[in-house]
Please model this.
Amino acid sequence: MSIKVFNTLGRRKEEFQPNNPPLVKMYTCGPTVYDHTHIGHARMYVSFDGIKRYLQLRGYKVIHVQNITDIDDKIIKKSIETGRPWNEIVDEYTREYLELLEELRVRPHYNPRVTMHIGDIIKFIQRLVEKGYAYESNGSVYFDVDKYEYYGELSGRLSKDLWGQEEEFVSEKRHPYDFVLWKRRKPMEPYWDSPWGPGRPGWHIECSVMSTRYLGERIDIHGGGEDLVFPHHENEKAQSEAALGVRPWVKYWLHTGYLTIGGEKMSKSLKNIIPLKDALRELTAPILRLWILSVHYRSRLEYNETIINQARKLYDRLVSSESIIEKKLLEASKSHYDKDEDVERMKTLSSIILGFHEALSDDFNFGEANKYLWEFTRFVHAELQYSESGALALVAKEFSDHLNAVYSYRTTGEGGISFELFKEVVDLLIEVRSELRKNKMYELSDKIRDKLGSLGITVLDYRNRSEWVLRK
Ligand SMILES: [Zn+2]
Model:
């Protein structure tokens, strides 16, 4: 089953064919670390994590880079407003961001920071100057937009009237729409030395530089929120294709939709921003992930009680389904998987699995895929529960492993021990406990049973043996 992706460049669905399969090079624009990470950021991070994980499930080897903007106008503004040193602000929010990303189970291979790549940035800008795409003016360096003939093709802004931006230094630029690559030093601002004098990088250049540094000159997927298409991604594209002499620099541009709270766009001016750490505390990562991955990544995502409750319910259903599957596997292993004729139910399960893959192969349609998650849990509760087929239990187990690989909702396994190891440890405990019971050491054996019970593991005692099931 081939995968199709909607490419912002060209605005159409295309067959997904990375430059060098099975390798997929993916770059996503990370945060400017001057304030708390919020659920709008999380929406972007988890959406691309879902895409990455699905590609991995389909056998692709994904290398993912997500940058950290640790020097920018917003950081300096915050430093002036609060009287705190800029690097102290940056350290605080970088730490928070990385901790939350880990808790969210989003794990880029590299999280490069701008201030660690100033030398690379200067070299990249020099290359643009040498090639005639950039010019120095009054200690700053600008990209000469007129020199790059494809400007506007990503955002669809093909007319110069739509390029008006960066009014700040308009008098020293060749054209008002030229954008800054290197900003000369202003009093009280952090700076680095460069061939053009002391200053600091403009915002857009960092992504061209750090993506090249970690992924090479061609990228398969470049992602970000839809608000980044113009000017940020348009400018990144112009810089990279001009400096590197490659086209297309990025094969597939993917953009996530925005987030609304009670129908309103989340924004600083509306004061309705929900910090990610608060949302994680209330919902936990598995539920937050299920909520974010309940709609298409390009669609609007709404945050309200009803929708969050759906994610909560789905989580409960998935966990209780896993418990049923484990129980069925246990039963099946005892009967040596010999009762595997359950043709009708196998057909139903196969069609659920197929539907799930069809949904995600169609531009990673998590909204459609979500329906199959519900269908799967209904199947497990209403069908698998009453089947004696070991084969059916095995297929259900494999599918639930695949679901977890994409959604990462299990609390055991990911980031900690694997489920297999977890199972072996509990098996060992049950065995030790059986020995205790044989030797009539009931006080200790009851203590183990009660403790396991409080951890969500029910121990079932029979005459000569014990079994366990994982409750939700
Ligand atoms: Zn970027």
In short: The pocket of zinc ion is lined by residues 29, 207, 232, 236 (CB under 6 Å). The mean pLDDT is 93.
